[in-house]
Amino acid sequence: MTYLRSECNDSRRSALSEVFAFKGIYYAVRDCPGLSEGKLHDNGSSCAIGAFWDAQPNATLSNDLIDEVAAVNDSVPYMTKRQRRAHVLRWLRWKLDRLGVQGIRGPR
User: Fold this and answer.
1) Considering the entire predicted model, what is its pTM?
2) What is the dihedral of CA 21, 22, 26, 29, to 10 degrees?
3) Sign of dihedral through CA atoms 58, 5, 7, 43?
């Protein structure tokens, strides 16, 4: 079980490659108006992982990946949902850049 999203089932590995999973999370977060904190879904809004599963309901992610994204999502409890979304998108762009994905940040 993940530490930060206890609603999730146990999975030691992702069915998706790390790059594909992070890109999927990036696009799901980009397309939502704001992110909630602490739960997959809360009063009609979702956290970053919840937004991904809203878009890809049958995808499997590893516990470590879920916890990494959830930690960034929950690291700014003082921010509004829109600010949290912007924060997570910045981090996801950085993460994808570190993984060698081109086109998310623009030309290098």
Assistant:
1) 0.84
2) 70
3) negative
